[in-house]
Amino acid sequence: MRDLTEQLIELVRRTSTDLSPDVQQTLEQARAQEDAGSAAQSALGTILENVELSRRNSTPICQDTGTPIFYVQHPAGWSTRKLREQIRAAIVEATQKSYLRPNAVDAITDKNSGNNLGDNAFPTIHFEEIEGDELIVDVMLKGGGCENVGAQYSLPNSQLGAGRDLAGVRKVVLDAVQKAQGQGCAPGILGVAIGGDRGSSFYASKEVLFRKMDEKSPDPQLAALEDRLTAEANQLGIGPMGFGGKTTVLATKMTGLHRLPASFFVSVSYMCWAHRRRRMIVRGEEVIYE
Amino acid sequence: MKQLTMPIGDDAIRDLKVGDPVLLSGVMITARDAAHKWMIETFVKKTREARGDDLDVYEAIQPLLNGGAIYHCGPVVAGLDSKQYKFVAAGPTTSIREEPYQGDVMRHFKVKAVIGKGGMGAKTLAACGEVPGVYLHAIGGAASLIAQTVSKVVGVYKYDFGVPEAMWVIEVKDFPAVVTMDSHGGSLHAEIEARSKRELDRLLAAML
Which of A164, A168, A184, B201 is close enough to A270 for a disulfide, judged by CB 3.0 to 4.6 Å? Predict the structure, then answer.
């Protein structure tokens, strides 16, 4: 089996120091629509200037390089044990090179491991065997500021008047955005999962963030709700950094899961504007970075 | 654009109003969750006995914090092995986690400026009025850009807290921020919070 450590370091470098074109474009559109001379427009200007500088110097866009979350889809015959070792080695090296901040803190002793390795969930690695002969590695760097403002609701929620239907889902998602204010580095991207158990629901709310910015849910009902939630979240007027303004949310991504008859969870993962996620495809000798 | 140089005098602080853009120059200290908990428990509430280098660090940071600035930041630092430290990425972290501690830290050390992102609450706002002090909002995620304003890493205390949590003493030149909480009771965050809540209530009352 091929050693992909070097390629994985490069994937992490690109993820930490450069935004995907679709995210960058959405931020540019947001800057254009904010009022000229407003604090909101100025914040977005600084954000875009920083992205440009980070790309040029290969330095992290944000110092909180987050929990590295990997989704690996592999053809039959690949050793997930070896892939895990290579990913962990790449994380250590990327930290040495200052593409990542040492972020793994033992919750009991408070000790930072210093090399970004923690238990089996740090970095988080999901494996899935797929048909075909391509290896696909997706990585997401999600910082703690936006992770902290994520929320999970159990419906019905009488305080918000939210029942077990899409109308109820709409209410709790808007509530989560209002509670987050600018804390999660607005303008954010919302990953919303409806259903599942508490664990699978949060997991799906992050996975859905891998969709392209202009990619809609294949379910027309959810696709319509995605657009509506983005528009209504922007009516809240929280704006970039919570300075006030037209752009509070850049996009909403929704997915549905099966649930138990007794449970109806809505999980909201808030992704900051520095939406760092990238894909690498290994096809024979060729390695493609999307 | 107003220029602020640490240590900052009371008049310069009282002159600042919500919405003012500022450029900071001079020495500041990074402090976040572990550092705030440590300062409060060891020196303000004294619920924990000073041990190890605690008292030496206290002596060293006191003059820097008097009239000085605390930056809520956990940087990416190069040169850890050689100790030739350089800030590579250094944007602000979310400030609200320090809300239980910040006001008391400001009063105890006479801290005049707290820099972070996302804003803080009523306790910190009250301290801003008393000390007097201000809360300055830096652009969250603008880490490479802000790191370029760090001209020198003067030193580091409490390195055993880990790189993000350690107290880094840095010299900055034209560090950009905006006043979002002032010494006259003004808070942009309280204002946006209230306005967005009214809008939320209106949206929730509407039929789907």
Answer: A184
